[in-house]
Amino acid sequence: MRTKQRLLALALITLLLSLAVAACGDNTATPVPATTAAATKAATTAAAATTAGATTAAGTTAAATTAGAATTTAASGKTVTIRIGTGDSGDGLAPYNQTIEAFKKVYPGIDIKVEPVTDSDYYGSLLTQVASGKAPDLIFIGDDEVADFVKKGAYEDLTPYINGTAVPGVKLDTSVFLPNTLQPGQQAGKQYLFPKDFSPVAVYYNKELLKAAGVAEPTENWTWDDFKAAAQKLTVKDSSGKVTQYGAQLTAAWQRGFEAIAFTQGATLIAADGSKYSGFLDSEASAKALTLVADLYRNGYAAPPSDINKWKGGNDNFANGTAALLIDGRWPQATLLKNPKLTNNIGVVGLPKGTQKANAINWGGFGIYSKSANKDAAWKVLSFFVSPDGGGQFFKDWGLTPLKSIADKNTNALDKVWTAQTEFFKPITANFTPYWNSAGAKELGDALTKVITDPKADISATLKDAATKADKALKDKIDSNK
């Protein structure tokens, strides 16, 4: 679970899981680019084209917008090309191509070039382009790097674009987005990125296994005590005492998964000003959350990680029917539903309640490069890509949409559960510091690994040590960047 290794995702929360999603070609949520340093090992559409007269996200009609595009082209004397940097590739580019085709009918004077970034160091590659002044006009990243990219001046403040002052007649009504899905793209109250897709953390359950054990299907009102009781009852052993079915499959040393659980206990892992982890990462609430996780593993109710160094532990117990509950994001849903053992046999419910009902988002989004030579055109592309009548039509089949109107039309009962979790999102740790991946994520991952693999590890002491080390790493980063 090392930070740099985790940054393989959305180029690898975009390549690994994004490729998995693309391979499915169905309604699986595209994993967000690097959604946490640990989650980044997993990467990060079809509908009718926008018709003339259809209202666009810019708050104008397609016909009126087309006229504006023609004027822009005539004034410049040449077609403008907007580059989009993304970690998506292969079949995952299908929604981009469909959106571009629809976009050209509205803005014939703007070409779009999608540039998949396939370098194993996705963020490093993008930051090199930023430093050289040659980054794409639109840049796609995960929520765990927003603060760092903004601090480095990579993104344009979108406030004047949203309200229509930067590009007259082309504004964006932000009320089209689901609750709390804009927040990961914000810094200091300003919007720098808009979401492409997202995923909460929730619980899958095997209906048949619950029924066989006499366990009622969980509801949104269930608690962690209910979860633990169910996991215990759902754990099955043979005559020799060997476990043949685990009650649950957990998220191992995946930091974002733990954050979500910690939030339900009322914990925050860093000070609100991003200055320290001590008192937060090692708080009583954080220790309570980690104790909950540790007890499930130590009591044998949760399947031990098959490889602690893999994202989420590398387990497939739920998929092969040897675990009844699974804590995860929405990404594996489509694949699970194709599993003969699970078809028509899967339920989804939000995380259990602790001291509060809470969740953590996994998110990827687009923003405008601050040194783009064509910011007006880039805004037209961006606003179209994230609009219900533009890219929202196409990306909805490749990820969980952040757009209300499209989500409301989704008749998939499981997706309704995922979408409902947006109400409970709490700001993730990476929102408060640009140094999460370099100072904080590793230390938390190490603490999770120690507690999960060592039954005798003292939880409070382990978290205190992690907070102390994270504070030192954080201070070093802050001092070196003064």
UniProtKB/TrEMBL annotation:
One of its GO terms (cellular component) is cell envelope. It is found in: Cell envelope. Gene3D superfamilies: Periplasmic binding protein-like II. CDD domains: PBP2_TMBP_like (cd13585). Residues 1-22 form the signal peptide. Keywords: Signal, Transport. Belongs to the bacterial solute-binding protein 1 family. This is Sugar ABC transporter substrate-binding protein. It comes from Candidatus Chlorohelix allophototropha.
